[in-house]
Description:
Blueprint: H1 35-45, H2 65-76, H3 97-105, H4 125-135, H5 157-165, H6 185-197, E1 205-208, E2 221-222, E3 227-231, E4 235-240, E5 244-253, E6 262-274, E7 277-285, H7 287-290, E8 292-293, E9 295-299, E10 311-316, E11 327-331, E12 335-340, E13 344-351, E14 356-366, E15 369-376
Parallel strand pairs: 8-15
Antiparallel strand pairs: 1-4, 2-5, 3-4, 5-6, 6-7, 9-12, 10-13, 11-12, 13-14, 14-15
Helix pairs in contact: 1-6, 2-3, 4-5
Amino acid sequence: xxxxLFLSTLVASSVIVAAHTVFANDFTDVDxxxxxxxxIQSLVDRGIVNGYGDGTFRPNNVVTRGHAAIILAGVLKLxxxxxxxxxxxxxxxxxxxxxxxxxxxxxxxxxxxxxxFRPNDPITREQxxxxxxxxxxxxxxxIDLPFTDVKKGSASYTYVSALxxxxxxxxxxxxxxxxxSAVTRGHLAVFIARVEALTNVSNSLNIIAxxxxxxxxxxxxxxxxxxxxxxxxxxxxxxxxxVGTSKLLLAGPSLASTVQQKKYELYxxxxxxxxxxxxxxxxxxxxxxxxxxxxxxxxxxDLALPFIPTTATxxxxxxxxxxxxxxxxxxxxxxxxxxxxxxGQYTLQLSNGDRKKEYIVHVSIANFETVIRLSVSS
Length: 378
């Protein structure tokens, strides 16, 4: 079977009601507050899709290639009046002949090697990627996909990469694109809405790990709503979504460290609307001043500490004494309170003059807050 390009629809098997249009916020099975609901509403508002006569949209129903030709031609506003094509199973009398022909003439769709188009077959996620990338001329940088089921060098790799790189899809899971699953009505609406949103974006930002002093990126953290983060350990892309400001934390082993010491950088991501389009810029922030720093209280008994400490010293992982501005220690007869303002690994030594005990302090960042984990030094 020649897997070039197959097409299906968001309106598969739906009942087109001429006298009464059911709007997305009236569909009993669509939450119009969600991304999917808004995407469906946009298509309904433009008269590209309608729902069923019972007031449902049935977003989980699969779509077919022939019907998808209708919606895609509508979204692209194609002139179908004079289009012609020659698929063995789409004669000139076929109800979708003109829209299928218009898409075929523009190189957006292809048929099978036997000359058929098979308009009643469902569209797969692989085929959807090819269609959208071709229709909207989406391109991708030289970026490695995280999906283990999309092989580099395969016919669909370039197209899936284009969708992933432009934030159209993030896969079924973090490592699976699921090429052969059928596309549903709701998901196709979302994919189209995301592609169309790219026309309102004037710039994005590519961040290459080595250019920012990282060996690679590991556990980057972002705030949702204002921008989307796309990419992998070597390179990420920031794509603006809405006007506003939110934080971005980049994390990973430092390129300058021979022992791969972990490095953190914090940024504000500003998205503004300039000349009607979303524009993105980043501003580096000071970690100490712009993170939330949590204090953790440990009872002496929980630390298995057989004495009341009177002094405390802190060293970094290289045995150097840590400046007291990077941490706070408070003691009482019952226990000790710790606050560390910079992520990393430290050695904490507690003493009462005669006896001492050492602990390893692991300071990480979660949701832009410092998190402390204490363990007994071996």
